[in-house]
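Collaborator request, handled under Task 6.
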Amino acid sequence: MINKMKLLGLALVTVVMSGCATVQLPAAQQELIDNNTTLYTQVGMWTEKGNVIATNYKRGEHIPVNSVVQITDVDASTVTFNYDGRSIKLKNIEKFTKVDVPALMTRTFALEQVNLTQFSALEKTAIEQGDVVIGMTKDAVIISRGFPPAHRTASLKLDSWRFWQNRFGTIVYEFEQGKVSKVIK
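Structure tokens returned to the collaborator:
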């Protein structure tokens, strides 16, 4: 009986610790962390209580595209970064994003700012506010809102993208000829 209890305890510790597992990053990404390199956000995101959920809930404080950040730590499910003097945790839920942490880092942070001159005045205003409006291109939507959760939008080539506003509410952006034509709440 005691051996079974020890085995159960060890299994529980293993499950708890697996959430804190380290991740092997490509050398270039690890160097960015080791050197405390200044990076720029490549998409808009929202933080609530120090957390950003990679499924892109639109709740809390908006962190706009091109915000200055430094990545301080990475594990198998979280990228911790400094923004505006605060530590923020970007939490990846891989079953929803369909990408691992190194891929999430690549699409979320970069050495260069996003060139916003490629977008119309309407798109730039929406991007700065983290909004999506009729007439925006797919690229502008990604920069403004981030990537739609892949478990509900299997391909960016689709003409209907579903985003989460929060844990329970979604919004759908429909596209015609590559531009937002309809918003369904």
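The cover message to the collaborator said: "The longest helix spans residues 2-18. Residues 23 and 76 are 5 Å apart (CA to CA). Please let us know whether this matches your experimental observations."
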